[in-house]
Write a structure and sequence with these properties.
The chain is of the alpha/beta class. The protein folds into two domains: about 250 residues, Rossmann fold; about 120 residues, Immunoglobulin-like (Sandwich), CATH 2.60.40. The protein has seven helices and 19 strands. Strand 8 and strand 9 form a beta hairpin. It is globular, with a radius of gyration of 24 Å. The termini are far apart.
Length: about 425
């Protein structure tokens, strides 16, 4: 009887230990579950649409071990195989069996080119994360996102809008489009080519300055050190647990349509070293409280002629600057993005609509000659990258001599023309 009592006490103690481990507060619901996961291509329904993602489990994966979770987003025209083949996006080889890897697929746009939509794919991320949280075993303090090109753009967006889920992000060759109403806080390693013509380095540096600012980092030379790679700068005095590194590199891939826009060969190792070197930090809704660089605001007034054969329902406008003389088709992102969310307002087909005193971001804009661009986004298209053959654009050359821009000549709209997209963008 005494022996049985001792055994019973030992059993209760072991169960209690297991329960404590199971309820540590930082394991996903998928830990200790009976869900049988396998590596391979998976599907879920998101926003009434079937979506795909590739799940790469570590060798010997068990639901009793909470792994880091890494979501990696391909560029325009690519898919998950750019990661699984490990020949271009070399993150899989760097991570090995140290983390669960997830490679979501973007949906094709109107031209059947896979492309991320920063509004729709926020919903996809939420649905995908819910699926993973319920079925995979990972540490909720170690959830990371990375991406290239438009995949970098969605990574930036997730860092802002889902910083209460993510521990850190690594955008490669992309910029942050919307830094309003950010939630939570993330560590950042941002990688960008010094000769990138698709996403000009200045736009990437504005993103860098936002992340360094919001994380209270100092960019003074006296406290800046060499980062993970010799091309990287690690900023000093950042908020505890939220470092920021910016890697401006000279790598070029001559086979790429913009050689400096390519994924650099050091990126995979650098990203994973940065991610795994971070101490686990509990997710929080609390954003950083650092001082973000002041935006130089301006105003623009312009007119748009909506043609009689205009197709679709316009949802919003964007106004940007390109190098002087730019014409369709466009092969790069704008040099300066002035405003990406101008209300359509009242319009009539065959008539001219006026837009007066629209606020603009003139940060970094030097006075001189540019090509002014408007984009009219159509319902059902992509955002913020316009959909060729669906969205509309207008271009006109202009001289800027103050922060107030007045374009007297109405924009004549035409469909956004197709540009060459390679599978490695």
């Amino acid at each position: 009887m005494k022996t049985n009592s001792i055994l019973r006490l030992l059993t209760i103690g072991l169960v209690a230990l297991c329960a404590c481990s199971k309820k540590s507060g930082f394991e996903s619901s998928g830990c200790w579950s009976h869900t049988e996961l396998t590596t391979g291509l998976k599907t879920i329904t998101s926003d009434s649409t079937q979506r795909e993602y590739y799940l790469k489990l570590p060798e010997g994966y068990t639901a009793k071990t909470a792994y880091p979770l890494v979501l990696a987003f391909h560029g325009t025209g690519g898919d998950y195989t750019r990661y699984t083949e490990n020949d271009y996006y070399n993150i899989q080889g760097a991570v090995g069996d140290e983390a669960i890897l997830v490679y979501p697929n973007a949906l094709p746009n109107a031209n059947n080119v896979a492309q991320w939509d920063y509004d729709r794919d926020l919903i996809f991320f939420d649905d995908l994360f819910q699926e993973l949280e319920a079925n995979a075993c990972f540490d909720t303090r170690e959830v990371f996102a990375l991406g290239h090109s438009s995949g970098a753009g969605i990574s930036h967006t997730l860092g802002c809008k889902r910083g209460n889920i993510l521990r850190a992000i690594s955008p490669v060759a992309g910029s942050l489009v919307d830094s309003q109403d950010c939630i939570g806080q993330v560590a950042v390693i941002q990688i960008h080519g010094s000769t990138d013509t698709m996403v000009p380095p200045f736009e990437a540096m504005k993103s860098r300055d936002y992340w360094a600012g919001i994380n209270s980092c100092s960019r003074e030379a006296s406290v800046t050190t060499v980062g993970i790679d010799p091309s990287c700068e690690a900023y000093g005095e950042c908020d505890q647990d939220f470092p920021v590194q910016f890697c401006l590199h000279d790598f070029e891939d001559p086979t790429h349509s913009s050689p400096g826009h390519a994924w650099p060969d050091f990126a995979g190792e650098a990203i994973w070293e940065f991610f795994k070197g971070l101490p686990p930090a509990a997710p929080s809704d609390k954003p950083g409280t650092g001082e973000v660089p002041a935006i130089v605001t301006g105003r623009i007034s312009f007119k748009i002629h909506y043609p009689s054969d205009f197709e679709g329902i316009p949802e919003t406008l964007a106004v940007s600057l390109y190098p002087h003389g730019t014409r369709q088709p466009l092969y790069s992102s704008p040099t300066f993005i002035l405003n990406t969310d101008v209300p359509i307002g009242d319009y009539r087909l065959g008539e001219i609509s006026e837009y007066s005193n629209v606020e603009t971001d003139m940060t970094g804009v030097e006075f001189g000659d540019y090509t002014l661009s408007v984009v009219v986004y159509i319902a059902g298209g992509n955002y913020p990258i316009p959909t060729t053959g669906k969205d509309y654009t207008g271009l006109q050359d202009i001289t800027i001599d103050s922060t107030t821009i007045i374009a007297d000549t109405p924009f004549e709209l035409e469909h956004v023309q197709s540009f060459r997209v390679t599978a490695v963008q």
